[in-house]
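BUG: 3D viewer hangs when loading the predicted structure for this chain

Environment: internal workstation, default settings.
Expected: structure renders.
Actual: progress bar stalls at 90%.

Input used:
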Amino acid sequence: MLGAINVGTWGFFSGAIAPWFPAISVDTSTAEGFRNQILFMAIITGAQALINHFGIKLTAKLTDFSGYLIFATTIVLTLACFAFAEHWDFTRCGRSTTSRAIPLITAPTN
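Structure tokens produced before the viewer hung:
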């Protein structure tokens, strides 16, 4: 399972981050790209082994950090959405946009 996750991480890295670094070859059909993938996977797996080796206290700290990071990112993105919105139109909040209710089930007509 860990290997599959790390291959997925390589896929994300090669598509999203590696284009920022043109010197890194991510084409695994070439020898250099394949070597880069193996090296990346070895580094990621080694980091995971170290975290596992240091025990549950480190894992708990990383989990707490990720929770705070997600919370802070949510606040920043929410404030950015408010700051860069073209307008704040609160007049439609809580009101129906239709003049009458549309029934979900209609009776057959004879």
